Amino acid sequence: MQESFSYILCLGEGMEAGSSKDFSIECNVLLWHDKYDMLIFSSRVSCNTLHKFGVADIFQNIILSLFAEKNMLSLLIRFLEQKSQIVRVQLLQTINILLENLRNRNSLYYLLSNNHINNVIVYKYDFSDDEHQQNFPLYTEAIKFFDHSESMVRTAVRTLTLNVFRVADPPMLRFIRNRTAIPYFSSLAWSIGNVTLQIDTYRIKSSLSNCSRLKDLVAEHVDHLHYINDIYCLNIGCLNSILTDQLLNRLIIPLYVNSLLTQEMPRDDGDNGQSAKTRIHPAIAIYLLSQIFYIISYRPLISCLCDIVLYGEESILMTKAHKSSDASSNTSSGLMKKRSVSLLGCYRVFGPPQQGLSQTLSAFKVKTTTATVNTSFDGDQFLFPESSSDELSVSSDSESSFSDVGTSTTTEIEQRQDEENSNNQSDASSSAMSKIDNQLDENSLSTLKSTSTLTADSGWPSEINTENGSLIDSAVEKNSNICDDANSESTEATDNLSTVEGQLNNRSSTLFWKELLKYIESSDEDTAILFILILVNGILETKGISPSLLKNLLPLGETPKAEAPHHYELVEKLFSITEMSCSQESHTRLVTFEVLIRTLEHLSINPHSNARLLCENHVQSLYRVLELSAEQLRVFYTVEDVFLDMFEDEYRSLKNNKPIGISKLIMDGSLLLPYSRSSITTIEFSKRLPCNSIERARRAMRIYLMTRKLVNKFEGTRNNNLSLFDIIGSINVKDVLELSNIDLIACHVITSEKMVRRFLAIRETQFILVDTDSTKYGWGIVRFVGNLQDVEVSSERDDNKSLQISIRQTSTATAISRGTLSMLTAKFVFTDHINCIVARQRLKRGRLIVRQKKLYQLGQVLGISFSAANQAANADDAANIIKNDSTSDLQMKPAVTEEFSTIINEAPKPQHELKLDESTIDNSRSNNDSVTDEATVQTQSSNSDTFVNKATDKSEISASNVQLLPPSPVFEITSGNEISEDMSLKGSLNRSLGTANLGNNDSVRLLPPLKGNSAQKNAVDGDSDNNIEELRNDTN
Amino acid sequence: MSYAYLFKYIIIGDTGVGKSCLLLQFTDKRFQPVHDLTIGVEFGARMITIDGKQIKLQIWDTAGQESFRSITRSYYRGAAGALLVYDITRRETFNHLTTWLEDARQHSNSNMVIMLIGNKSDLESRRDVKKEEGEAFAREHGLIFMETSAKTAANVEEAFINTAKEIYQKIQDGAFDINNEANGIKLGPQNPSNPSTSVPDRPPQSGGCC
User: Fold this and answer.
1) From the candidates B28, B58, B71, B110, which should be mutated to test the interface with A, based on the most A CB atoms within 10 A?
2) How many CB pairs below 8 Å do chains A and B form together?
3) How far apart are CA A348 and CA A361, in angstroms?
4) What's the fold here for domain A735-866?
5) In this prediction, does ipTM exceed 0.90?
């Protein structure tokens, strides 16, 4: 306490001394320079003291009275004038803390009286004129940093501006619109354009090393667009229209749209020389344009852009210079011409704003009341140019309202503005915009046609913009002339309207669209095609574009070529790319193909009318593509496991994965880099070309499957000729199964972590591990499910009772690319060798059957010609036969899995060709009509590693045959006494056979009865052995 | 003052969990009990030493970014580290962590180090979220975890410094592309290891925007 008093005193004295000795501040600084540290320290301590005793007001009062007595606050404030930043910051902080922590009313009064705090505020913000409050430093100071090199600062500016815009305060919004909107948004457009130019530069010399830089730039562009969209989403009409105007005229048209043309428009003078580079690579322009379609949701902008892309013509790019030079074709008045010349180079040229943002903004400090009126008038003018110009051409209302604006006095305008502001905090512009919106729906074709034609042909609306923009730039000078200018301009405008309307019907011009089609045709580079496809998708997928605007691209029904020329031409081109993609030499990447198919999907069915849009030719093309893609895939068709696995994987991922996210795609800067065949780069497979035969096969599969999907969609049928690939096992983990009808083999499953007792079963296409249900006799809980076709079994060399079983996960493409993920790898220990063999046989055969059937079905679908005799035995028939067989078998082996039973009953046919080429199939099928699949399976399994263990097999088999096996101790059902009792009753022999009865009549068959089939099955393995031969004869 | 690296941090979490106070405590070593809502941005910087190297931590505390997509995107993208803060006395701030984390993961670069912080550990009597819960959440999502108190300064230093250590380690492992400032890491001005490989001829920054 005492200490702090002394500090305050010390501080006070120091200050007093400093200020009284000499009032010259400079002198002060010199004198007290070495005492700054002390000053700062004292002020820190004193405010900490104040804070510490904040609760106890008595102490505070003492301190404060001392504070007041010494007139400390004014001293402190005087020190604000010091040049030293450190002192100033510390003092401001001290004052701030004082204010924040004082609870005592008197103390607060003291602090807030005498204008001290006012002085602080005035000092800080440098209000030169706080009477009119015509500045909003928080905002205007902040936006000066919108382009700061520190990304966090830029982010902060965006945050701040958006939050400011969000405060729906009409006077503030008016200030922002009238004073800052044009300079800010034009600078923003310029800045985005610069990012674009940098992207272009990087793309030219792109290599992997600057890949990350390129990605950053693309991300930056995306950020900008998101920011713009966020502004749009705040729904502030007046800002939105200015923003649209600036974007279109300063960025999108002069830079992006302009770059679409292969040949630069000739420009007549040095005017362009001085301006910045205004062309980027067309592919980049297309790419960035599609980003706009995918990110920005503001309908007027998107519709306008769509209109330009589809129906835009050359004149839209023209600078005013052109317009005036061939003015003979134009009916504009002489006055207009004169103005045009004077505004040379201002119109639709990508260039920097005439004045830097900070200069423009600082110009506000000099202002008069007249300036205010005039600038607000300027703002009002912005409601009409460009974005609302389309309104003018169609509705007489708005036309007259425009001339109202032109002729009315500034006061009237202000009044009107205020009224509108008070009505619904939006203003003239937003209501105009909503009118446009309505018209888009009602009469959108002509309205939208007029948008580009009008802006393109007359050029006057933008002229007003730039005129006004420059007015604002130079703040005040011209204010006396503005009214006259506006008046004359509006008269010209109404004069011009007739001309504009006359040109509305001319919709044949589709310059940019033709350019795009030309790219598709000529480009041997896949990137350009991909970007065009993305752009077209953007147009087709963006919500809010009226269907009638798209009529030429997306007709409502099948229409003759002449009526939907865009559609016809595009589809034609797309099919030719699709056809070309179906060859191994093609440069079409999978990502492009996917977008291609998606585009075709959009173009073949109208989403609204659901009508099929393809004409006869194109439908034929569609089927030809399907045929071509099947042909390509046929080349890769083999019976190798890897082929089926791959196909299955592709099939599943196409079915289950979400369709390609184009909105994600467009943010991927790596798309701009040249792609290669190399797999060394980290570029994912779909975004490069295949580099080896496996990838080529995969590509062929994906192309086939995607085409097939398109055909199915077009036909609208669920004709699934690959039905087997859709079978999903019906059993899931934790299901409770009644075990009486399931064939089970008891085993111990040993993984690296633990050993558990399970029963192995095969159900349809599934491999299942079951645990007995301790609460319900005769029931079991499923603990593990895997696909039978993915099971890999191998015998243990030294242990004839156990198997090594692993199940791979092939469900996702990523699993493959990362190396197969193992779902289960475990050692299975069976009760005895017989069970072990049975399990192995079942698993191997189950796997092979599933695989063979699938391969056969796929082969048929691909048109691989199996012999005519076997055509009957297609997969469905085979399935039926299997079913019949198994039912007939049922009395003998009631619990054996269907497929399995069939195999077991088939006499194996030695056959040594493993390859399922045509001849093999033909042979086998002619020998044994319906069940050749199984025959092949048999052979294959007997040819594989089962032979390894043949010797041991034999002895065991003979033993089992005469049923001399010792009682097996392995069975211990843990679920309860009753069961074990029951078990004991059944006798050991029964147990050794693996059959146990549980409870009443629910029998759990742990093994198929050995009598018939296990012996027979073993016979398959050892058919050279005499004993076995005998056995087989017996059973047969 | 020269430094070897500059790391940019962001602080995220629900309103009122003490983000600004953590920042103030770390950069200024003081605590301000009454604090207005952060409007716009608060910013702080401090030098620390890791492994004998001077490292400048630049901490950006941006409020209100949640409502705008553009902001979230660029905010996260520019940071090398993030402090994800919740208030141990308010369960809902803990419950919202998943959303915060999803956002962060979606927008940030994959190397960004995220530290989970349960703040206000001095208010033990009003504790609503157990320390174990925070630990479990961190484990589940691969975050570093710490409970701090901006008031008593407990663990505040550690939180910032441990995050920095993790980032530093990632740089040593080559996970971060230090030549790319957009990752939230900057090489110091006098860094001898400043490689000339950093993008050879960068076009002049006409707009200063990149």
Assistant:
1) B71
2) 117
3) 23
4) PH-domain like (2.30.29)
5) no
